[in-house]
Amino acid sequence: MAKVAWLTVVLMLAGTVAAQAYSKQLTEDDIKSAVEYGKTRRGKDIVESGSPYFLRFGPFALGYISTPWLEVASVARQAAGEYRDPTEDEIRTAISTSTGRLQIFAFVAEPLDDFWRDFHMVILQGERVVQPTLKQGRFIRAVSCTTRPCTVLAGLLAYFPDETLDTNADIEIVVILKQGRKELRTKVSLGVLR
User: pTM here?
Assistant: First the structure.
């Protein structure tokens, strides 16, 4: 009897995890939950440390991974900050511009000249290497000039197609600086993202 009860609990939890997993196509329930989450983030960052979307590449590099669900949540957070609900058009635009891709945002502080200009980023999943379809780097500010070159903070953005990714498996994100002189890595479980 105890084995049957345990099996029932395990199956129920497995069903719950599958319902929460990263979906390449958002359902109406996904959209509603993203809007509700976004409203709770009014006046706050869309993700914070401890969130499965939060990325830590090391002591001086962090960021987040964005899915279509999180993009809808971002629209709802923006609207909540303006004391209004997101419009259908805003939600539709967020979905149409983010479906089919993952967005990786990284904020990196390094003492490397112009590293934001020639960075690269890849996603590794098993033997698969996914290249970005778009990448942009931007100088934010000098952090310290006690060393040469100065340590600067830069924002790095890359878009990745998600069609070849197993959305229930882990990925490793690799940020490559100065043609491989330095690599920053972090792992993400896609199965816990929405």
Answer: 0.85
